């Protein structure tokens, strides 16, 4: 069924090839119109102002401000723009964090093109949409409360780098953060996990395959 007006999309992903692939998919649909692209948070906020999209299709893993943090900024600055997360991560905690930040849906990047289009159309109408695999993981996670579930996506990213033996300054450089921010995240990770020393922290990350 064709919309009276195409859904105006803003593609936010730090990989140009991914954006090119998405645009090629959506150009085949008369219901969708890509009005802007962005590879980082600053570009996304600028494009949101200038291109007036109905929906932002948002990746999570980006340098600097990640997609969940950016979703929260969209909710604050552009509450009229719906956010749909399109990610390779099927982790239930990522989904919970995204929903808390204001996302209306979460679909996996390896989903068929028709499912991604359907997700966009539903979210643009004001409904929500979650890939079946995501919904299953969220239900499973709701019955267990492992310590790692308390970590935010950003804290998981930092913990994975701690597991690689990176120092705070190296992590800050790699993630485009300040050293103080990394130090704060490290303290929060230890507090949430009930861990004191560096060796314990690395052991935990390795055991949880971070």
Automatic annotation (TrEMBL):
Keyword set for this entry? Answer: DNA-binding, Phosphoprotein, Transcription, Transcription regulation
Q: Which residues carry this modification: 4-aspartylphosphate?
A: 59
Indicate the segments forming the HTH luxR-type domain, all copies. 144-209
**What top-level branch of life does the organism fall under?**
Bacteria
The reply on keyword Lipid biosynthesis is no
Give GO MF terms, alphabetically: DNA binding
> Which part of the chain is the Response regulatory domain?
8-124
Listed InterPro entries: CheY-like_superfamily, NreC/VraR/RcsB-like_REC, Sig_transdc_resp-reg_C-effctor, Sig_transdc_resp-reg_receiver, Tscrpt_reg_LuxR_C, WalR-like
Among Pfam families, the record links this protein to:
GerE (PF00196), Response_reg (PF00072)
For biological process, the GO terms are: phosphorelay signal transduction system; regulation of DNA-templated transcription
PANTHER family per the record? NITRATE_NITRITE RESPONSE REGULATOR PROTEIN NARP (PTHR43214:SF41), TWO-COMPONENT RESPONSE REGULATOR (PTHR43214)
Its protein name is LuxR family transcriptional regulator
Organism from which the protein derives? Pandoraea terrigena
Starting at the broadest rank, the lineage of the source organism is:
Bacteria, Pseudomonadati, Pseudomonadota, Betaproteobacteria, Burkholderiales
